[in-house]
Amino acid sequence: MMLGHVNVHNHEVIRIHDYMAPSDGLLVHSVIVEGPNSLVLFDAQFLLSYAKDLADYIQRLRKPLARIIISHVHPDHWSGLAVVAPRFPAAKIAALPKVRDYIALNGQEIMDARRNVFGDAVASQAVIPEEIIEPGEHVIDGVHYQFEAHDEGESQYQLVAILPNQRTLLAFDLVFPRHVHAFTVAPYFSHWTKILRQLESYDFDAILVGHSRPASREDIGATIEYLEIAKEIHAQTTSPEDYAAKLKKHFPDRGEAGWIDFASLMLYGVINP
Questions:
Q1: CB 68 within 8 A of CB 92
Q2: CA 174 to CA 193: how far, in whole Å?
Q3: Considering only CA atoms, which of 46, 96, 36 is closest in space to residue 66?
Q4: Where does residue 97 rank: exposed (0-12), middle (13-18), buried (19+ CB within 10 A)?
Q5: β-bridge mates for residue 18, sequence order
Q6: Are 99 and 91 in contact (CB under 8 A)?
Q7: How would residue 263 be classed by pLDDT, with cut points 50, 70 and 90?
Q8: How far is CA 122 from CA 106, 193, 259, in A?
Q9: What 8-state DSSP symbol labels residue 73?
């Protein structure tokens, strides 16, 4: 029995497996693109238990894992490399140049800080991506990808992946479903909104995100609205507690309120990194 939940999106030639951890694992997503001959994994979970669950699922697909791509710099998407990488030693770990450099410079300090909060549930050592992946068009096992690099969104450096033939957008942590709070860990509200308006203009049928259930085009607009309110509240507050309380009051129907409590500590520099 799996710990996480998987949605499988069937397309001609390929399948997309969208693994989501339970709530205590922050509902983190890992996306597996199954090509004709091999697999590509985007993100590797936060808690080690769910990284193992993910690795077990990948193994059951009975195709080699060719590449692991890390979407952005936040450790809830790469802590699990400590489990996944040894299970699939032939898989090359890749990231955008800025993402790779950030993890190389700050990864161990980040994991030390997270272990102070989460203990042995997260990795003790940061695994550094060994390869870089440049923005632009790529073909991996016959699957076409369009990779974009964005700065100052939900994280300082962020990948967006588009599968044009499958009309699928992998937005990761740039888009949050409208029934949960977003992680606002840095004051990039305006530029993040600009990125979202760009994504909103794209032609796609499905959007997969970094946390909670798969999103819809309407969730892009809902995330923009959330960020506009969060920006106003941030400008009026001086403490993480006040910011979190006012944001929760404005969005009383959004779940996972603990996310904003933790995110506000980073936004105000109480937790760094």
A1: yes
A2: 9
A3: 36
A4: middle
A5: 7, 31
A6: no
A7: very high
A8: 16, 31, 17
A9: S
Q: Can you give the pTM of this predicted structure?
A: 0.97
Tokens at residue 208, please? Answer: 């997969």
Q: In the chain, what are the domain boundaries?
A: 5-267
Q: What is the DSSP code (8-state) at residue 19? A: E
Determine the distance from the C-alpha atom of residue 165 to the mean position of all C-alpha atoms in its chain, rounded to a whole number. Answer: 22
What lies within 8 Å, CB to CB, of 273 at 6+ separation is: 106, 109, 110, 113, 266
Which pLDDT score is estimated for 214? 86
For 232-247, write each residue's pLDDT tens digit.
Answer: 999 999 999 999 999 9
Mind listing the pLDDT tens digit for each residue in 17-33? 999 999 999 999 999 99
DSSP 23: G
Identify the H or E element spanning 139: strand 136-140
Q: Strands across the sheet with 136-140, in order?
A: 136-140, 143-151, 157-163, 168-172, 206-209
Angle, alpha carbons 3-5-10 (nearest 5°): 145
- What string of DSSP letters covers 162-214? EEGGGTEEEEETT---TTB-----SS-HHHHHHHHHHHHTS--SEEEESBSS-
Q: Are 237 and 196 in contact (CB under 8 A)?
A: no
CATH topology of domain 5-267: Metallo-beta-lactamase; Chain A (3.60.15)
Q: d(Cα 72, Cα 49) in Å, to the nearest integer?
A: 21
pLDDT in tens, 82-128: 999 999 999 999 999 999 999 999 999 999 999 999 999 999 999 99
